[in-house]
Design goal:
By secondary structure, this protein is of the alpha+beta class. Among the domains are: about 1-80, Serine Threonine Protein Phosphatase 5, Tetratricopeptide repeat (Alpha Horseshoe), CATH 1.25.40.10; about 230-360, Beta Barrel (Cathepsin D, subunit A, domain 1), CATH 2.40.70; about 370-500, Acid Proteases (Cathepsin D, subunit A, domain 1). It is built from 17 helices and 23 strands. The strands form three sheets. Strands 2, 3, 4, 5, 6, 7, 8 and 9 form an eight-stranded mixed sheet that branches. Strands 13-14-21-15-20-19 form a six-stranded mixed β-barrel. A two-stranded antiparallel sheet has the order 17-18. β17 (about 425-430) and β18 (about 430-435) form a beta hairpin.
Length: about 500
């Protein structure tokens, strides 16, 4: 006999009783009741209602219930993708109880979700110094290490967190993501399965939907080695010519031994992406549907997920390559969607030499000096840290398929920027038109010693990809940021190296 249905009925009955009780009580007497109500609503995945209940608990009792209720506010806001609010509430929470390890981990989770990865990493370490057996601290440290491509260390921390909290679904999800990056697909699928099984039956979130489709896809590989290369090819470097068209790097590639065709070099996508026509001509069959998020009014876009038998780029031949299939294609955009691939998503480092129009790919790049070296962070996409107006640090996605430097609407709203004019734009991306995009002039951007003073950025709605990724994307740096340089994206060293190319 299953226990879940009975637990759900009991929870529903208690929830109804609490709602009734709250409605009949005086405002000054119901802080504990509101907190209990918020807790049950949260467990029922009714996060918006839970957030309201926790807020009421803080309002009516600013002392005894404030810390626990404010923790509920932060956790609910994070589930709703309201990352900036979560960070602000977490900051207040930390001021109330700065020596609590649990409070520090909640604050660190909020920092992480606001895209402040470095600050979050330090806070997780502070929490563990106070309480070494704190599961959420080890979980946070696992995510931080994974973002630096330290996968073995990250897995060790995730396993400690799992041992301390074996029924924490988020830890299982993190274990799955690390296994997937290690290309241990069977174990990744099992971990994602544990995550889904621990979710409430009513959870229909984007993250849950993505995980369910990912389980089916990863299991489809069976005994096949994902993203495989012949041993000799795997240890070498592969250089191909490219051309630049509309601020995009274009190379020639083959799918399943077919004809050579254009592929966009697109580090803003985590997977190789092909059209339905290419899938059909190359006999690429869809395995499942998945969710993909990008710039545009569609936001979360349903795509097919398939597997390429081979992908050939110059002298490099990869086998068993995960790929998204654009089916159906976007309508109403000015140009046909193109095929694209991301070396980073294939576990490959790369050097783009814009002066010589040469692209070099390999599992490992040689060490070399550069004019500028920026630390990279990886969480499904690759990012570098920038500073806006000398006060607001944030992470920007490195997107070779993008054109300009942009910031998110959420980041722009935080700046309180005195903008004399708002120049409306129509921008289209992988999820259609962003009709609310605009140009924001007069910003100062710094990426360590690389400065853009009194600069105009494009403001884009990046909420959909932020929610799917689990943190607020600060912005995007594209072709115009990268193209004056010889650029290396080195996964081994987790660094972006840039040297003026003279082109």
């Amino acid at each position: 006999m299953s226990i879940r249905p009975r637990k759900a009925l009991v929870a529903a009955a208690v929830l109804a009783a609490l709602v009734s009780g709250v409605q009949g009580r005086a405002p000054g007497d119901d802080a504990a009741l509101q907190f209990q109500l918020g807790t049950l609503l949260f467990e029922e995945t009714r996060y918006r209602e839970a957030l309201d209940a926790f807020r009421k608990a803080v309002t009516v009792d600013s002392k005894s219930m404030a810390v626990q209720a404010r923790m509920g506010i932060v956790k609910s806001a994070l589930r709703l993708g309201e990352f900036i609010e979560a960070q602000k509430e977490a900051q207040t929470l930390k001021l109330q109880d700065p020596r609590s390890a649990e409070v520090l981990t909640v604050h660190a989770d909020a920092l992480w979700s606001a895209g402040l990865f470095d600050e979050a990493h330090a806070e997780f370490q502070d929490a563990l110094a106070l309480e070494p057996d704190l599961s959420r601290g080890h979980h946070g440290l696992a995510r931080a290490l994974a973002s630096q491509n330290k996968l073995e260390e990250a897995m060790n921390e995730a396993q400690v967190a799992l041992k301390l909290s074996p029924r924490d679904e988020e830890v299982h999800h993190t274990v799955g993501s690390i296994f997937e990056r290690m290309r241990r697909y069977e174990q990744a699928a099992a971990a994602y399965g544990n995550y889904v099984n621990l979710l409430p039956n009513k959870d229909r979130s984007e993250k849950a939907s993505w995980s369910r489709s990912q389980i089916r896809f990863l299991r489809s590989f069976g005994e096949r080695e994902p993203i495989a290369m012949e041993e000799e090819a795997a240890v070498g470097l592969h250089t191909v010519d490219f051309r630049v068209v509309d601020d995009k790097v274009i190379v020639k590639a083959k799918v399943n031994g077919g004809r050579l065709q254009d592929f966009v070099l697109d580090t803003g996508s985590e997977l190789t992406t092909i059209s339905r026509q290419t899938a059909s001509s190359g006999a690429v069959r869809p395995i499942t549907y998945t969710l993909s998020a990008g710039v545009g009014e569609v936001g979360l876009r349903g795509l097919q997920l398939g597997r390429l038998d081979t992908l050939e780029i110059g002298t490099m031949k990869l086998s068993n390559v995960p790929a998204l299939i654009k089916a159906p294609a976007l309508r109403g955009i000015p140009k046909r969607e193109t095929e694209s691939f991301s070396p980073l998503g294939l576990g490959l480092s790369m050097t783009i030499d814009y002066a010589t129009l040469k692209l070099t790919l390999g599992r490992h790049l040689p060490a070399e000096k550069a004019q500028y070296t920026l630390p990279m962070r990886h969480h499904r996409l690759t990012m570098v840290r920038g500073m806006i107006n000398q006060t607001r640090p944030t992470y920007f996605v490195v997107d070779t398929g993008g054109e300009v430097i942009s910031i998110s609407t959420a980041t722009a709203n935080e700046l309180n920027h005195d903008m004399p004019r708002k120049i409306a734009l129509r921008v289209y991306g992988t999820s259609g038109w962003d009709r609310d995009a605009f140009l924001m002039p007069g910003l100062n951007l710094n990426f360590q010693n690389i400065a853009f003073n009194n600069f105009a950025v494009v403001v884009l709605n990046l909420q959909a990809p932020s929610v799917l990724l689990g943190f607020q994307v600060g912005g995007i740096v594209g072709h115009r940021f990268l193209s004056p340089y010889r650029v290396s994206l080195d996964l081994d060293r987790s660094e972006l190296r840039m040297t003026k190319s003279g082109n």
